[in-house]
Amino acid sequence: GAGVSQTPSNKVTEKGKYVELRCDPISGHTALYWYRQSLGQGPEFLIYFQGTGAADDSGLPNDRFFAVRPEGSVSTLKIQRTERGDSAVYLCASSLNPPPNTGELFFGEGSRLTVL
Amino acid sequence: SQQGEEDPQALSIQEGENATMNCSYKTSINNLQWYRQNSGRGLVHLILIRSNEREKHSGRLRVTLDTSKKSSSLLITASRAADTASYFCATDYGNNRLAFGKGNQVVVIP
After folding, report:
1. Which of B54, B61, B66, B108 has the most CB within a 10 Å radius?
2. How close A15 gets to chain B, by Cα (Å)?
3. From B89, which residue of chain A is nearest by alpha-carbon distance?
4. Mean pLDDT of A11-33
């Protein structure tokens, strides 16, 4: 597709449930990022993939969060045992220019997660 | 101004006026970027300025970078109602990510 695609756009779940959020980056972009944005805040880094491997997962808040990118394209962010504090917009971005000189990031529209 | 620890700023201006917002950062950077976000969804890249550049223009946007003060400013000239959005600066510290500020909310009144 022309841009970064994220599904679902909205997800409402109950506390304790498991959630998967999907990101389809721009074709050919090897760098893929997940960010989380709470209301009134800037995006907060979660994880960075270069190709298939998680090059930096230091932003994941705890072991309930996990992300994969098995074929170096589509990525899935997985959240186990969701908590109300996980409610946020989860943003995915891809880039042609990976670190250490990070270039322009192309963002998807985000997945808004609400945990009741 | 934006910084990791500062509260987001709000700016309300009349259409046709200029809007200026500032961003400060902590340590040496590779580059600094500005993004725009409408309605709390996806961010759109506006402009990138490298650490060895001092000023850059793109259409009605002008970005400056002062590495001695560790600060940047974004100027939007002749603002339009469509410029109403949140504006974020993001710094590349060379550590596998862009670090975003908390944003400046700009409202342009027609």
Report:
1. B108
2. 23
3. A42
4. 97
Rounded CA separation B73/B89 (Å): 9
DSSP designation for B80? -
pLDDT at B40: 64
- Max CA separation in chain A (angstroms): 40
Taking Cα atoms as reference points, which of A49, A55, A88, A84 lies closest to residue A69?
A: A49
pLDDT, residue B52, reads 96
Please report which confidence band the pLDDT of residue B5 belongs to, taking 50, 70 and 90 as the band edges: very low
Q: Cβ of A49 under 8 Å from any chain B Cβ? A: no
Decide: B99 and B35 in contact? Cβ < 8 Å: no
Inter-chain residue contact A42 with B88, CB threshold 8 Å:
yes
Length of chain B as a residue count: 110
- CA atoms within a 13 Å half-sphere pointing along the CA-CB vector of B87: 28
- Show the 3-state SS of A1-48: CCCCEEECCEEEECCCCCEEEEEECCCCCCEEEEEEECCCCCCEEEEE
Q: Which of B46, B48, B52, B98 to probe the A interface (max A CBs under 10 A)?
A: B98
